[in-house]
Amino acid sequence: MVLIMMLTMIVRNTLANAKGAAKKKALLRHFGDIDSLRKAGPEELRKIPGITAKIAEEILRHLNPVAPT
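The structure corresponding to this sequence follows.
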């Protein structure tokens, strides 16, 4: 459930079209849970149809924020 909510937020912020739902479903099918998605690198994310380098970086930035030092 958390993965679905996070992906929904990311997709809304990153993709503003109907294709976003298909990308979200593809990410869910491929990774299965939030930990697997969080640990994935941009190369693995780009294996998902429709996930560009820019989208992969945006997803990972949202899932793995850098704490201020």
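DSSP finds five helices and no strands in the chain.
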